[in-house]
TrEMBL record:
Gene3D superfamilies: Glycosyl hydrolase domain, family 43. This is Glycosidase. Keywords: Glycosidase, Glycosyltransferase, Hydrolase, Transferase. Belongs to the glycosyl hydrolase 130 family. It comes from Sphingomonas alpina. The keyword DNA repair does not apply. One of its GO terms (molecular function) is glycosyltransferase activity.
């Protein structure tokens, strides 16, 4: 696989940069916490020309297991609380979560709770200018009681739209926030229901409507016919909306796993699609099966500007790969590797600034010349 050489590639923000004394949870949880990861940042350009990262901060219990129980943080009206389960009832082999035993289907809880931290970068995305703790986004509703995760930001007209994953026992849903300045966010509520993740709103209207990529998940997929160019599994679907609140799935399929490669056997949306002279450029993640989580890489496709259900071109070579050299200084903080998860893209003239989460740990900024895309 051939991977292009970036013009700039660095980690800009990591767990050591988060001041937990200014966390929304500070003084509200009766246990010591730490930053498990500061990663998967949504990105946009602010009115002042600087870039904004909306960083997912996974704030975890330092000692989730004690006194024969495992504990989890949960938001409730007025603050935060700790729940506990006897160890005999759970599987604790994964440090990020624990699975309930029995029940006939998968039920899990998290050892961390995620909130969103606005981090302002310089206009070129090469340095941190400010961290806006006073604009942090934390859970505000029961459907967010286990956290707010993985922001994706699009500017459509004069308004910014931010989708997030909200986690709760009620549902694992996609929620929408809106803003007039990309710093002060208004929660609009749930826009996609249970386990429809990686919702990316196109940065512009198509046929007078809002469009989005979605990725519904499930445990059952039907086989393509023998010899098909496609592989059954999670795919990147499409939906349209008159108002960005009410979404109708598009009848045509979107981007599907290709039978010619196992590197993208599992896939999902990455950065919100941006319009080029040739069509909509979309960056997405493909996962090659390996070990527990697989190898995450970033790929790209070009979609028709008038009908995003038409894929004009897809690259089977990765655009961005995990880079161990970037995370070597953070070895003592790492709990997983082989993951780069792209979540934002901004046009910077002759190149794109791309934001990713590296190893579910830190925020990575990569500059890619437009010639890389050959479009």
């Amino acid at each position: 696989m051939s991977v292009p050489v970036p013009l700039f590639d660095a980690l800009l923000f990591d767990p050591r940069d988060v001041d937990l004394s200014r966390s929304p949870l500070a003084g509200k949880v009766d246990a010591e916490t730490y930053v498990l990861g500061a990663f998967n940042p949504g990105m946009t350009r602010l009115p002042n020309g600087n870039l904004l990262l909306m960083v997912r901060v996974a704030e975890a219990l330092r000692t989730p297991i004690r006194d024969g129980h495992i504990h989890a943080i949960r938001w409730e009206e007025g603050g935060y609380t700790l729940d506990q389960w006897p160890l005999d009832f759970v599987d604790t082999s994964d440090p990020r979560k624990f699975m309930m035993r029995g029940g006939g289907w998968k039920v899990m809880a998290l050892t961390s709770l995620s909130w969103l931290l606005p981090v302002e970068l310089s206009a070129d995305g090469r340095r941190v200018e400010a961290v806006h703790y006073d604009r942090a986004v934390e859970p505000r509703a029961p459907y967010q009681c286990y956290g707010v995760e993985d922001a994706r930001i699009s500017k459509v007209g004069d308004r910014w739209l931010m989708t997030t994953c909200s986690v709760s026992p009620e549902r694992h849903s996609t929620t929408l926030y809106t803003s007039d300045n990309a710093l002060d966010w208004q929660l609009e509520g749930i826009v996609l229901d249970h386990q429809n993740k990686d919702m990316l709103i196109f940065e512009g209207l198509v046929g007078g409507k809002y469009w989005a990529q979605t990725r519904p998940l499930g445990d059952l997929y039907f086989a393509y016919p023998p010899g098909s160019e496609w592989r059954a599994g999670p795919s990147i679907n499409l939906a349209s909306s008159p108002d960005a609140l009410h979404w109708k799935p598009y009848d045509k399929p979107g981007i599907r796993p290709h039978a010619a490669t196992m590197a993208t056997a599992r896939m999902g949306g990455g950065a919100p699609p941006v319009l080029t002279d040739k069509g909509w450029l979309t960056l997405w993640h493909g996962v090659e099966p390996l070990g527990v989580v697989g190898i995450y890489r970033t790929y790209w496709s070009l979609l028709d500007r008038d009908d995003p259900g038409v894929v004009l071109r897809t690259s089977h070579d990765p655009l961005i790969e995990p880079r161990a050299a970037l995370t070597d200084p953070l070895k003592e903080l790492m709990y997983l590797d082989n993951v780069v998860f792209t979540t934002g893209i901004v046009d910077a003239g002759d190149h794109y600034v791309v934001a990713s989460g590296e190893a579910d740990l830190a925020c990575r900024i990569t500059h890619l010349g437009k010639r890389v895309f050959a479009i």
